[in-house]
Amino acid sequence: MFKNCEEYGPFVLRLFFGIAFIVAGLDKIFSYSMAKGMFEMLFGGAGGVMLILAILIELIAGTSLLIGFHTRYAAALLALFILVAFIQTFKLGAVPHFIGTLREIMVMNTGGGNTAVNFAYFATLLSLALTGSKFKAVKPD
Prior knowledge:
This protein has one domain. Helix content is 72%, strand content 0%. The protein has six helices and no strands. Helix 3 packs antiparallel against helix 4 (71-89).
């Protein structure tokens, strides 16, 4: 049944992640003051600049994923973006042992931020960066 469907996997991931990042960027715009407070908590005085950078990355790279334009570059940029979010929000030492730390990274969200979500996003975006997607709405030049 799925024998001839291998090329659809990256396409589906690209669409869903493109939409997810566009929504995330728009959410930061529509709740700007709340997002700014969160970014200032994470990045101090650079919070406002980092928020604008995050919005631009999410909207531009998310749109690029959605339409299939330079998928590998957009996915690589978003993977780096998620890695920074992961590092900034993960509270190392929130659990008493190594296995608990792995659980926090890979499964749970109790140690701070959305560590499990960021981990899954990072893995998926890294996969898209490595494989690309054959189905595109536009062809890169």
